[in-house]
Design goal:
Elements lengths: L1 E10 L2 E11 L4 E6 L5 H8 L7 E5 L6 E3 L11 H6 L3 H16 L2 H13 L5 H11 L16 H14 L4 E5 L7 H12 L4 E5 L3 H7 L2 E6 L2 E6 L2 H36 L6 H13 L27 E10 L2 E11 L4 E5 L6 H9 L6 E6 L5 E4 L13 H8 L5 H9 L17 H14 L4 E5 L7 H13 L3 E5 L3 H7 L2 E6 L2 E5 L3 H15 L6 H4 L4 H43 L10 H43 L1
Parallel strand pairs: 3-7, 3-8, 5-6, 6-7, 12-16, 12-17, 14-15, 15-16
Antiparallel strand pairs: 1-2, 1-4, 8-9, 10-11, 10-13, 17-18
Length: about 625
């Protein structure tokens, strides 16, 4: 178990934890939450052994294997699938030892290493790595690309896959959903639910926490408080505790005021001096109960638009894409004031293409796009954070939009986004991703938009800022079109969904639970299979019969191949059994028979390698055969 006792942790002059206590039992899944700068990442570093406690204890079992999601990428030349396989360091060590033993022709060592390789799951490791990559949104072709070919967000997905690839007793994940779309988050939820070890997870996605964790550890005021249940249960329990704390505080303050009034009135009177002194001592002994400071540092709204058009925007027969290549066809969309629309769809289906077109960053390939006379668009996308002026402060950014506005008015507005004091005049250069996102939202909110186009607006935002954004969107009087992996934001700010899939944009009649089911069916439907699948979708019966005949011809050699592989596999297994029977004879281990033993071990290693190769080939052949047989049944139906 993880046992933290009387722990003090300090970074520089700031004390992150003081006399903190926490116990996590094996198999528990806990979310670690707290304000930015509270010390969550430092606690992870402590658990990994990269930091030492300033006082107290932090104990983990010595034999625990710890996996964590790295925040940097150090080898851009590795292929993506190899980079993920590197996460299993023990497997890589066995592979390296095998190469050395083979070079040295050390049969005895080879035999043991092949057994270790089998135990480490080496024969199916590549398949497991590819399954992780597919779940996180990588295509089969992308798995063969170099790490350096991917953008920063996709490199973080590779780091996440690498962490999941590592066999572990403790898994530490720091904001794993930041660079994921909704599809990948749903896949990750299922994976983590099946994880058998202990999980400690930093996340600002409340729905993700609710789905995955069974406890929440809250870092606040240099303390750690463990709550049972997911994030929603934490909110309820903490709210009740703070209400009780506030009541106790108010009661104590009333009692203190009464005592102080008594002391002030009767201290000078000899007959009352003893009672006054006793009350002074009681005041000194009285435990200080803090007031419940639960106010968010964020409080803002989108400034009201001056004018509206109806509709704000009208797209008819739209062909949307890049250059001459259309990603979406026959798109019809009309946005009127008050519309609240969430965009759903698989990764790469065209959601960002649609938003970029509506924002004016992409010209339609075809069709008609009419913009209302009074349209004012507020467009948020991650790439816009890079367009901020690194040398300019938040105040200067806003002054450029409002050169005639009073400076104090601008500072008050920025304060709602928690840019206060000296921070309002600091250059953006050293800002975190979350601070840049807050500034980009502040600039949009100032501009009085009547249409908000938001592409993943909650990336890098903490829970308090996400709540503030949700409340601001609920009060917004214009139209909203949003793509987000934050399901709480979607449920709280939209009232209809559009599904972007298969080159089309259509109304989705359902909620996010229905979309989860639709997505599972979509993945199954679009999973790679035999090339004849496309034929099965045609309604022409003659073409179906021709396709079935062609498929039957293709089926025969695949069937023969599977039978041949099965026969070869049986022969190898029989030979391996004979070798292992000889190795079971204790006499073969006598010094006089060391050459025979070496030969037997070498043959055992050879047969095991061949057995693994044949098993993989046979399984692949059987999968292909079964897929083709299923397709044939569909065509004959």
């Amino acid at each position: 178990m993880i046992r933290i006792q009387n722990l003090t942790l300090q970074r520089g002059p700031k004390r992150l934890l003081e006399h903190a206590e926490l116990t996590l039992h094996p198999g528990q899944k806990a979310g670690l939450i707290g304000a930015n700068g509270a010390g969550k990442s430092s606690l992870f570093a402590l658990l990994r052994g990269e930091l030492l406690p300033d006082a107290g204890e932090c104990d983990l079992p010595q034999d625990w294997r710890i996996a964590h999601m790295r925040q940097e990428v150090d080898d851009l030349q590795r292929l993506a699938v190899d980079y993920v396989l590197d996460g299993d360091q023990h497997l890589r060590q066995v592979q390296a030892a095998l190469i050395r033993a083979e070079a040295a022709q050390d049969g005895a060592t080879l035999g043991q290493l092949h057994a270790d390789f089998d135990t480490a799951g080496g024969y199916n490791a590549d398949a497991r790595a590819r399954k992780l990559l597919a779940g996180l949104g990588f295509s089969e072709a992308q798995m063969g690309h170099h790490v350096g070919d991917f953008s920063g967000g996709w490199r973080m997905r590779l780091n996440l896959a690498q962490a999941l690839m590592c066999p572990s007793d403790l898994l530490l994940l720091d904001e794993p959903t930041n660079h994921l779309d909704l599809d990948a988050i749903l896949w990750l939820e299922d994976w983590l639910k099946g994880y058998a070890g202990t999980l400690l997870l930093i996340s600002h996605d409340r729905d993700f926490l609710d789905a995955v964790v069974d406890h929440v550890a809250h870092m606040e005021q240099a303390k750690l408080t463990l709550y049972r249940g997911g994030y929603s249960a934490f909110e309820r329990t903490r709210g009740e505790r703070l209400a009780q704390q506030q009541q106790a505080y108010e009661k104590q303050q009333a009692r203190r005021a009464h005592m102080e009034k008594y002391v002030a009135r009767f201290r000078a009177q000899a007959t009352k001096a003893r009672q006054a002194q006793s009350r002074i001592k009681a005041l000194e002994r009285m435990e200080q109960i803090s007031a419940a400071h639960v106010d968010s540092p964020f409080e803002f709204g989108f400034r009201e638009a001056l004018k509206f058009s109806s509709p704000l925007l009208d797209l008819a027969e739209g062909r949307l894409g890049y250059g001459d290549k259309a990603v979406l066809e026959k798109v019809k969309l009309q946005l009127a004031p008050g519309a609240r629309i969430g965009l759903l769809g698989p990764n790469g289906a065209g959601k960002s293409t649609l938003i970029k077109t509506l924002a004016g960053e992409l010209a339609p390939v075809g069709g008609r796009l009419h913009r209302g006379e009074n349209l004012v668009v507020g467009y948020f996308a991650q790439h816009q954070l890079d367009s901020l002026d690194d040398k300019a402060s938040p105040l200067l950014h806003l002054q450029r939009l409002a050169p005639n506005e009073r400076e104090q008015t601008l500072k008050d507005f920025l304060g709602g986004f928690d840019f206060r004091g000296a921070r309002v005049d600091e250059p953006v250069l050293n800002f975190s991703g979350g601070e840049k996102a807050r500034l980009a939202l502040a600039l949009i909110a100032w501009g009085r938009p009547n249409l908000l186009l938001l592409d993943e607006p909650t990336n890098h935002l903490d829970l308090e800022m996400r709540l503030a954004l949700t409340l601001a969107l609920q009060e917004f009087g214009g139209a909203v079109l949003v793509v987000s992996h934050d399901r709480h934001l979607l449920k709280s700010t939209t009232d209809e969904f559009l599904l972007v899939a298969d080159g089309k944009v259509a109304s989705f009649d359902g909620d996010l639970d229905d979309y989860t089911r639709w997505l599972a069916e979509y993945r199954q439907r679009t999973a790679p299979s035999s090339g004849a699948e496309a034929v099965g979708d045609k309604t022409d019966k003659k073409a179906q019969r021709q396709a079935a005949a062609a498929l039957r011809q293709q089926l025969a050699p695949h069937k023969k191949q599977a039978e041949r592989l099965e026969k070869d596999l049986g022969e190898v297994q029989q030979a391996l059994a004979q070798v292992e029977q000889s190795l079971a004879d204790s006499a073969v281990y006598e010094p006089a028979r060391k050459d025979e033993l070496r030969e037997l071990l070498a043959r055992q290693a050879k047969f095991k390698v061949r057995q693994g190769e044949l098993e993989e080939a046979w399984l692949a052949a059987m999968e292909t055969l079964e897929a083709m047989q299923a397709e044939l049944e569909t065509l004959n139906a």
